[in-house]
Amino acid sequence: MDIYQHFRKEEQPFIDQVLSWQDEVASRYERKVSDFLDPREQYIFRSIIGHNEDFVLREFGGYEAAERKRLILAPFYENPEEEAFGVTLLEASYPSKFVTLEHRDVLGAFMSLGIKRNKLGDLIVTDTQIQILLASEIADYVKMNLTGIKKAGVSFEERPFGEVLETHEAWQEQSGTVSSLRLDVMVKEIYNISRQKAALFIDKGAVKVNFRTVEDPSFSLEAGDLISLRGKGRSVVKEIEGKTKKDKWRIVTAVLK
Fold it and tell me: Residue 15 and residue 57: Cα distance in Å, rounded?
């Protein structure tokens, strides 16, 4: 059976990577540690490995509710501990009296260091603190070079995972049926807007799927896809449960409130 038929064409390089790791772990009995993966990539990884008893598949992003995680694929007899994932928590305070920082400000400053996005896990930004979960191999570089965000001077220090700040994010799960898994139809359903308005948002580049702008209303969504609609927040396609007798798709989604 062709495994590629179950996924998108642009996802084939990632699928090839997972299959390559699977072969290496099976032949060399050496674990493989991924970079930080978004929810869709995590879903693909788990789908490929499935319930194969020859492997252990574990995930960790620094805290239980982490969105972006590193995955370990290891021989069946291993039990990877937290340290094996190579995740580090950095924290800095900033003077909120003089500057207001948002998630995008911190992400932009991080990316300006020339580091790839897949080395970065979740970002947590409050009124006074910033926490960055990132690959341990770049932690020292970030501490030395990320010293300012907008007009705020910052100094990052390592913290234990037990000190991860609560984000107070609340995901509201909802289930329903849709006539199609097209992006415009799904955006209409999830955000309770007209299909015409959904198509307009997509056409204007206001919709992202898995952190990438998608301007094609007919783009087909799949389980694990993370959607972002500018001004309306984020949502995720949690499950696609098949079709009803009336040929509609049963879906489970969640919206960040």
Answer: 16
Backbone conformation region of residue 50, classed left if phi is above 0, alpha if psi is from -120 to 50, else beta: left
Of 131, 118, 127, 126, the closest CA to residue 162 belongs to: 131
Output b/e per residue, 13-42; b: 16+ Cβ within 10 A. Answer: ebbeebeebbeebeeeeebbbbbbbbbbbb
Residues 6+ apart with CB under 8 A from 14: 41, 44
pLDDT digits (tens, 9 = 90+) for 37-78: 998 899 999 999 988 999 999 999 999 989 999 999 999 999
Q: 5 Cβ partners below 8 Å, 6+ apart?
A: none
| 208 contacts 228 by C-beta, under 8 angstroms | yes
Q: Is 127 helix (H, G, I), strand (E, B) or coil?
A: coil
Torsion of CA 160, 161, 163, 168, to 10 degrees: 160
Average pLDDT rounded to a whole number, residues 190-207: 96
DSSP 190: H
Answer for the pair 250, 244: CB distance below 8 angstroms, yes or no.
yes
Q: Which residues pair with 75 in a beta bridge?
A: 55
Alpha helix ranges (H) inside the chain = 12-28, 39-49, 103-111, 139-145, 183-191, 195-203
